[in-house]
Design a protein that fits this description.
mainly alpha; elongated
């Protein structure tokens, strides 16, 4: 008699521990296929998650144009890291820069090579 009650309790516990039904699994599979989260084979692994954006295409294009004008867009490794255009802009004329260079040379602040390193100027 005791063994029958143990078997009945075990059967009830097994039913309670069972996972989703076949119909539930099929419904989940159809939902995953519809949302693009289901892939087959190696193609598209892992499944791409749908991206949403709060910006319109025109806003993105305007931001890209602004970044290009500011010198913040790079291509390849040649111009990495990007240097903002504001950092490279100067208000000095070519003659003023040449004058400053001549003055620095006269004061010994400009060196060539490593023979006179560190510079001994003021």
């Amino acid at each position: 008699m005791l063994s029958m009650s143990v078997l009945a309790a075990g059967a009830q516990a097994a039913e309670a521990d069972q996972g989703p039904t076949r119909a539930q699994v099929q419904a989940e599979l159809q939902q995953a296929k519809a949302s693009g989260q289901y892939t087959f084979g190696e193609e598209g692994y892992p499944a791409a998650i749908a991206q949403t954006s709060s910006l319109t295409s025109q806003q993105v294009q305007a931001e890209l144009a602004q970044a290009k004008n500011a010198g913040e867009v790079t291509f390849g490794n040649l111009d990495y890291p990007p240097v903002a255009a504001a950092e490279t802009a100067t208000s000095l004329t070519r003659a003023q820069v040449q004058s400053q260079l001549a003055q620095a040379k006269a004061e010994g602040l400009v060196t060539f090579g490593n023979m006179d390193y560190p510079p001994m100027g003021s």
